[in-house]
Amino acid sequence: MKTSKLSIRLLWYITPLVILPLLFLGGFTLTNVTNSTQKQADLIMSRFVEQQQQKIFNYIDSFHSTAKLLSTSPVLSDFLTNDIRANGDHTRRLGALMDVFASYSEAYPDIISINLVSASGRSDAYYSNNLTTAPKSYPFFNKVLQSNLSKQQFMIQKDDGTTSLYFIQRIYSVDYYLKRPQQLGFIVIHVEPSILNTSILEAPYNNTLNLMLTKDGKILFSSDYNMRGQYISEYELEQVHSLADIGMLSTIELSSIDKIERMIFAVQMPGGYYYVSTIPKGVLYQSGKAISLITGLIVIISVITLPILIFVVVRNLLLNPIELLGAASHRVGDGDLSVHLPAHTNDEVGVLFNDFNHMVNQIRHYQQQLEEYKHHLEDKVESRTKALEAMNSQLELAIGQAEQANQLKSRFLANMSHEIRTPLTAIMGFTEQLLHNDKVANDKQHLSTILRNSKHLLELINNILDLSKIEAEKLAVDQSALNVVQLVHDIESIIEPLAQEKQLTLNVKYDLPLPRTIYSDVTRLKQILINIANNAVKFTEQGNVSICVHYLEASQKLEFVINDTGIGMSEHQIERVFKPFEQADATTTRRFGGTGLGLCISKNLAQLLGGDVTLESEVGVGSRFTITVACKLSDDQPMLEFLTQQSQLVPEKDPFLSFATNSFDANILVAEDNPDNQLLIKLLLQTWGLEPDIANNGAQAVEMALVNDYQLIIMDMQMPVMGGLEATKMLRHAAYDGPIIALTANVMNHDIGTYLEAGCDKALAKPIDKDALENVLVSYLNLEKDNQNKWDSLLKSEKFQQIADNYLANLPAHLEEVKALQYTDDWEALRTIAHSIKGSSGCFNFDEIYHSAAALEENLKSNNKVPRDELVSDLINAIEQAIQDKVS
């Protein structure tokens, strides 16, 4: 294949860029490898010698310690401090000493013998493990006598080349009068140096020669047994001494041993001995040379082969594909669109090949499309026309749906306008008649009409609010126990008058067994049942309406079935009836009224209560609504209790939830800024025998509540000057602990939660419901009545009477203090004592003292000095009267 110019240029660039760094890197690597192998060998040798030195040190120290321990033995002291030969106890004491020597010999197997030598050199006691006799003398004993050291060791080489160790320890006796030690003799321990022999034979490398030299150059131990007993030259000994001082590995030649250049590491041992470890230099660095040789060979091979490999790889990966791509591009330029590059790897070159193939395919595709456009242009125009017609049809359908939605909205607004204006017309008309015509008859009937239309208007507003909360998924349900029989009875009491008005029969049927109590939201469940039952009456002209109650054991749900014999509905009407703002048809709205929200809200509420609302109907026959709700909205509710007999189907009434069975004399505060609402609430409370105090804003309410003792406060939340929320917080901070009932038109859950968090005990919605207000009043006034009864019992108790008597006993002291302060005109101190007397007298029901002290304190706080003396006199008279009443 012809070599391209780009390949030649690439080879010229690659060769110097690769070879020069390789040569530099190879030389650097070779140098580092050689140095590191030498350092590694030096480190191994130095660590080996240090380990052997430490091992020998420990070995020698252990026998020095043994000799010293033996010299302080009580048995030895007893043996030496008595003139043994003078009495007849020598044998016993010598036997005891032999036992001690034997125990040491057993503990240390290397000990050959132990000898007790007197100061004159005589052997007084000798023990040997091989039963030899005591030596007559030691070759080193004169050195021992001449030395002042307490412990010494000697290495004595025998004729056979073996070396023995001797450890000498002086024995002293203390003269307690002169405090001067007296030398009694020596302990001589003869040891077989097994550790030294083992240490000498150990070696970190092959051909290692280890020596133990005396200070005059004699070889005591050697890993080569034939060298024991020989001497090295004085020059060599000086070199060994120098190496031992610097502690480094060095190269010297020991001519006394052989003519080989050796690496030597030497250390000095106790007693002037030298431990020397040698190895031929060629052997020590032999592995390093091999590594260096291999490294150099690798560098040479890399310098030769790497540029060639790089060139081959770059040519195959880059140059050949570029040449192939160039040739293909030239063919495409000549108009040959059949070119297709072969599949390549997933790298950038492969992506380039794929893009090139894609480009050629796109060119081919566009050429084909161009040909098709030329031949089928009319077909394209026709298909486009049909597509535009389809789009126009969809647009017309969307416009129709939008117009239908607009008509639905307009119809809903018209319905709402009609539904709202109808009760408003009745309310305004009858109200004007009552206001302007004093001779109107049946005024109670007119007022009843106004009330009925007002409730209808409120129901419309509540339905719209409920729907908005349902669509926003913010409608929450409560969980509380509700009596099933009482619930159905309440529904019956509301629906029955409506049915009687239209001369319809209302039937209520209980299908036993039924749960006595279920756990659900009683308000929402009543709303569902009343709405559907009311519709049943409204759309029935003749016949009957029935309410049946069943318990579904399989699903643990309660089922209410409401049947009517009304107008009924078709299948199409059933599909629309549960949609918001829709009724069965337009004539239904004109004939029966309504907004079309009731059934939609009822179905959503039933689903929130764990059930549903379903409908079966036939035109002209009637409708059947089935309402199911869960008996328990959560699993943590108690077990259900069931009713099984007809006698149990009588509703229970709480006698304590009515003013008719209670007698209250309560002091109530009403905080309301609207004069009409003030009058309404006052009229309601007066019907129950209660006369409230009125506050026009929150600030007045706080001031009046702190001065007077109210059993209950009804607080409007929206007032000028200070709102009910701020007033409630202020009262709670001022330690007012009585019940506070929030009165508000904001009945959202988060609003009620805010009021309760601020300190309100309950929240009542506007417009005010008489029954709800009555229940709240009875509940909280009963609690206050119970608390008052407990307080009255406490005031009558013997313990309280004893405390009151103690207070009376201290009144004379308070009287004298008040008189003294009046005489000295110390008004500030008098104000303090008046405050104290006011607080204590109020607790013990001394009202005269309380009011006099309070008036005096209030005066002393101001700058009005005119009536002060009179107020002080009133306080003094009140205290004196209380003391006199006690005496009488």
Automatic annotation (TrEMBL):
Q: Does the keyword Chloroplast apply?
A: no
The places in or outside the cell where this protein is found are: Cell inner membrane
As recorded in UniProt, its EC number(s) are: 2.7.13.3
- Gene3D superfamilies given for it? 1.10.287.130, 3.40.50.2300, 6.10.340.10, Histidine kinase-like ATPase, C-terminal domain (3.30.565.10), HPT domain (1.20.120.160)
Q: Which UniProt keywords apply?
A: ATP-binding, Cell inner membrane, Cell membrane, Coiled coil, Kinase, Membrane, Nucleotide-binding, Phosphoprotein, Transferase, Transmembrane, Transmembrane helix, Two-component regulatory system
Indicate the segments forming the HPt domain, all copies. 796-888
- The residue stretches assigned to a coiled coil in this entry are 363-408
**What SMART domains does the record point to?**
HAMP, HATPase_c, HisKA, HPT, REC
Which InterPro entries does this chain map to? CheY-like_superfamily, HAMP_dom, HATPase_C_sf, HATPase_dom, His_kinase_dom, HisK_dim/P_dom, HisK_dim/P_sf, HPT_dom_sf
**Pfam families xref list:** HAMP, HATPase_c, HisKA, Hpt, Response_reg
Give the way it sits in the membrane: Multi-pass membrane protein
Regions crossing the membrane: 12-30, 290-314
Chief site of localization: membrane
Q: Which residues form the Histidine kinase domain?
A: 415-633
Please give the residue positions where the record annotates the modification 4-aspartylphosphate: D716
Its UniProt entry gives the catalysed reaction(s) as:
ATP + protein L-histidine = ADP + protein N-phospho-L-histidine
On the tree of life, the source organism's domain of life is Bacteria
Domain (HAMP) ranges: 316-368
Q: What name is this protein filed under?
A: histidine kinase
Q: Which organism is it from?
A: Pseudoalteromonas carrageenovora IAM 12662
